[in-house]
Prior knowledge:
The protein is an alpha/beta fold. 40% of the residues lie in helices and 19% in strands. The longest helix is centred in the middle third of the chain and has 16 residues, at 201-216.
Amino acid sequence: MSTSSGAHGGSVTMRDVAKAAGVSVATVSHVVNDKAGARIGEDTRLRVQEAVAALGYRPNALAKTLSQGTSRFIGLVTDQVATTPFAGQIIHGAQDEAWKHGYVLLVANTDGNEAVEGDAIAMMLEHQVHGILYSTWYHREIAVPEALHQTDTVLVDCFASESGLPSVVPDEVQGGRTATQELLAAGHRRIAFINTTTPSPAQSGRLAGYRSALEEAGIAFDEALVVPASPEQEGGYDATAAILASGATAVFCHNDRVAMGLYDGLRDQGLRIPDDIAVIGFDNQEVIAAHLRPPLSTVALPHYELGATGVRVLLGMESAPTSGPLLIACPSIRRESV
């Protein structure tokens, strides 16, 4: 039987509501669960609803789930999204979109532990969640946990080519093109690109976007302007000498951490941004980009929209392509470094 804590203390049961409204427990159940086809007069329905409000009764959501085979829960299983402020907007976007449509988000952060991940998915399946979003904190291909095939699943910020599961990922090519176009629009023609040495969709996609923007502007691609670097501050700092030797007047950095390191390297050489050389980053890690001097122009990873779109795809409100991921645009964030 369903129970809850009433406004006046103690447990309020469906029987309490029935007594207050002068009806049967079955009638209360039909009204509370909005049972289709139940013949209940409007006066009776109103009395039950008034009793529910007066007593502070709440249906037991889990009991309702088990009896109806459905729930208003959506699961979100992540590796490190919840503990990474940079990617935490995925949860924010998914949660907002779930609430908008009457669902509650159940979040499990596994820290990449396979045993914890398996337990989390099993728990969500036991609670008969409407479906599961499976997300990683950076865009990559994954091996799908077998249990995810037992319910509707959408991959967020990751993909699995042969799984048949819909996925929602950032448009890395468009993002790389947008970053380069920002530098072209500022009048630069010799533009360097500091790219990561780590194979990933970001590494190949952003390079493809860079090349595409140059081609559209009628500028020949120069391999010497692509500088490999580790994807952190030290990588950007270490790339400074190669950037200066290239004669570039502007630099597109693989991410904001690389840009932060390049800032330090250029400052050590007595150069000013953007007066002597323009810099644009990628990711929009605001704790970095907004607080550098000058503030860093960058291209944002659309984490909030990835989460929100994942929920819409899961609920059937938006379609994902059958031949590949649904691509979400990466917007330009203009500050003062270009």
